[in-house]
Design goal:
The protein has 143 residues and is mainly α. The protein has one domain. Helix content is 64%, strand content 6%. It is globular and about 55 Å long. The structure holds zinc ion. Zinc ion (ZN) binds next to helix 7. The site of zinc ion (ZN) has 4 residues, from helix 7.
């Protein structure tokens, strides 16, 4: 039992590092590239009311989408919706998302709540991977 748990913890640390590496900004960790997303676009794409309100309260009428930004907001951001409604090509997003999953090794990571956390760490890491895949495609399409 104890060995299993230590192995699980080690895997968790390793995978967290790999997720971090996979989601770090391209070209040496800046992730500085960005592309504008407006409140009007969200409304036009029929984003839900609470998401529109949160966007307006947080960013005003526009924001420059960067990898760093989506990572910060990954927990609140509906990436699946955004990929379908805000990207021109969902297939390219899905391919990139799958690549990042493979690169991070996240499929070997167990799901579960940490000792203190109220969120499953693996699901949280998956949200980050999805968010970065979205940001990279969004910027590539518009940048
Ligand atoms: Zn989970």
């Amino acid at each position: 039992m104890r060995d299993d748990r230590r192995e699980g913890e080690l895997m968790s640390v390793l995978t967290r590092w790999r997720v971090w590496r996979a989601t770090r900004g391209e070209g040496g960790g800046g992730g500085e590239a960005g592309a504008v997303l407006t409140l009007k676009e969200l409304r036009d794409a029929h984003a839900c009311g609470p998401q529109v309100d949160r966007f307006r309260e947080t960013f005003g009428d526009r924001v420059v989408v960067t990898e760093a930004l989506v990572l910060r907001w990954a927990r609140w951001f509906d990436v699946q919706w955004a990929a379908r409604r805000l990207l021109g090509g969902v297939a390219a997003y899905t391919a990139l998302y799958d690549d990042l999953r493979r690169e991070s090794g996240i499929d070997q990571m167990k799901h579960g709540y940490g000792e203190t956390g109220d969120q499953c760490e693996t699901c949280e890491a998956e949200r980050k991977i999805a968010a970065v895949a979205f940001a990279r495609r969004f910027i590539a399409e518009r940048g």
